[in-house]
Amino acid sequence: MPFPKHRARRTRQSEAWRALVRETHLRTAALIYPLFVVPGRGVRHPVESMPGIFQLSVDEAARHARDVAARGIRTVLVFAAPEHKDAAASAALDAQGLAASAIRAIKEASPQLLVWADVCLCGATDHGHCGHVTAAGTIDNDSSVATLAQVALNYARAGADAVAPSDMMDGRVAAIRALLDASGLAGTPVVSYAAKYASSFYGPFREAAESAPAFGDRRSYQMDPANAREALREVRADVEEGADLVMVKPAGPYLDVIRQVRDAVQVPVVAYQVSGEFSLIKAAAARGWIDERAAVLETLTGIHRAGADLIISYFAPEVAGWLGA
Prior knowledge:
This protein has helices at 15-20, 58-70, 90-93, 98-109, 141-158, 172-182, 203-209, 229-241, 255-264, 275-286, 292-306, 316-323; strands spanning 31-37, 44-46, 54-56, 75-80, 114-119, 132-133, 139-140, 162-165, 191-196, 245-249, 269-273, 310-313. It has one domain: Aldolase class I (TIM Barrel, Alpha-Beta Barrel). By secondary structure, the chain is of the alpha/beta class.
């Protein structure tokens, strides 16, 4: 019998052909870079579990943001680890606090850079949970939502281009949207961590953000890794409440969820390639087990191919260089 007319290898025979018919294209503009801000001045403290990532004082964060902007990165995501921590998360509510100061400094240093502000209570509370803790040791949803809305307002007033609630409390998007609108900030987008899983891949982040819970875990509010239909309920609810973008976190273990979310909603979908994903690649590459550049580009391409419009990644500045911005 004659060989079938279709030969898939015809358009794989050279890099020119492969580039011509490539279906998925990474873009520097679609990458978002996280920054970890700590108190002090001139602080550039390496995060041991995340090679190449640093805790930065406000002045250093502004300088570093300017550097990554020069490489083509258009958006940064700010996390703050204030020195003062209490049950009320008062540091996150302070208009002159660490997060608000960092937002202002980065915007002043790089006005063209979009600054997203992570909105949560964990970094500013003495117990490290994402909401208020009751006397019984549970996380109270509704009082936490009220505080989160005030934190989002504080960051928006400081100049954040978007607020990104990562707490996973029920109803927080609606509360944030209502307060921003009532405060003359209707133009500030809400980027919702809509499907945030209780993942084992967050360990290195908790060192960087100084946000590990002092007791228990976050499974009563973050999602069960076994659930996908629940993610779609969360995403649809946040869109109905006014989320302008929705996020799936982590990215790599949840490519199926990213695909389903992309098919379910019309707003942009963000995926977060989290600290554990980053550190695993770094550790394997340091031992010569994998090619770091190839692995990074393959994983990010897979996340994008699954349906993510935007990707938060600690590799963003390096990838910008590889892609030629």
